[in-house]
Amino acid sequence: MDRARPRLVRPSRAETTAAVAVGVLTLAGLLALPLVAAAEPDERIVAPSPADPGWWLVVALLLAQAIALLAAKRSTRLVLAVVAVVPALHAVAVPGATFSLTTVAVAAAIVWAVLRRPLRSLSAVVPAAGLLVAGAQYVNDVRSGSAPGVATLGAALLQAFAIVAVALAVGLVVAARHDARVARGHELLALRREHDALVQAAVARERVAMSRELHDIAAHHMSGIALLASAIYRQVDLDPEAAKVSAQQVRAQSTTVLDDLRRVIGLLRDEAESPRSVETLAAVRELVERRRAAGADVELVAHTGTGTGTGTGTEVLGAGIGTLAQLVAYRMVQESLANAAAHAPGARCVVEIDDRQPDRLTVLVTNDASHAPDPGPGGGFGLVGMRERAELVDAELHHGPTADGGWQVRLTLRRDAILDDVPQEPA
């Protein structure tokens, strides 16, 4: 039986970047060391030459540290131990000024360890790595010509402590910033989910409200169908042609009510509530008058085929606009005026109904900029309800700020085919 081959784990992009950066930095320092030695002739800096076998040994040690960092993410503590041993090997084999280059990888491994593991899991390996570097520093200094003793040992311990402390500080700062970004991301995600839940609740409330109004809409259409059916019964023998026309009207009325029912199917009505009238475009006048009585500065302008009026009740509005669509227009005006009162208190509002186009009717609610203090942003759920209602009747809804700092909401309703008047049931 064939054995499964072990899977090779490729280093991550972060591991590769860290290893390449350390390798390039330390090799660049090795190549620049002769320039430093030439600039400081009084210092005891001995720069090895590529002709010296020790120079190539230093290159091999630095490359070994960089290669070890490729596994820093998977074996954090092991990699730290490996790179911490290299300075000791350097101090024994090729002591000299190049020793400090081997501590760069140790610092990088400590930073990586702090980022990947909790501090308590590093309580042994980090101090051990620091002591190993301190011991290697002492051996390197003594073999490079420094006198053995407490002073040299103290200097070695101080240098090792500085390397470990700086690396720990950098790692902790980077880790803290990363944790803050993650926490902020989680907070934004929670806020987004909360907002989505509130939007869904607002949409559900609007759907339930429309389902409660559906009963009255259906009752309006069904009463018309009942009258037409009665007329057909009386006309079928006396006036067959009139009976055919009435039958066509029954079919049109039935199609209309089925379309309205299909749009809000699945929504339930609370039968415990008392019956309510269905608001239409004609009821906008009463809505505006109630707002005026409450102290609001609201004006109604109605444009019809016979001219422009002020909503006194003499204009016939909404011919060919279905009952459900007229209800949507009424609710849009109601919600827009409520939003204006909440977000622009005291501002003048204009409700404009344009009923002059043969294929559509437009309702426009505009409020001026408010001089009162800004009450702050709202949840936007009123607009959600308007959009939900507009989609139910295939209407177009647009809203946004005006040039003078106010706000405008525009609803465009498609006009249905105009039916003949429903005949009255004969006495």
| Strand arrangement across the biggest beta sheet | 2-1-3-4-6-5
% residues in beta strands: 5-15%
Distance between the termini: 98 Å
Radius of gyration, rounded?
41 Å
Which stretches are low in confidence, meaning pLDDT under 50 for 5 or more residues running? 4-8, 266-276, 417-427
Helices, by number, come to 10
Task: Compute the number of strand runs.
Answer: 6
Largest sheet: 6 strands, mixed
Query: What string, H for helix and E for strand, traces the elements in order?
Result: HHHHHHHHEEHEEHEE
What's the shape? rod-shaped
**Helix-strand category:** alpha+beta
Report the mean per-residue pLDDT as an integer. 77
- The helix fraction, in percent, is 55-70%
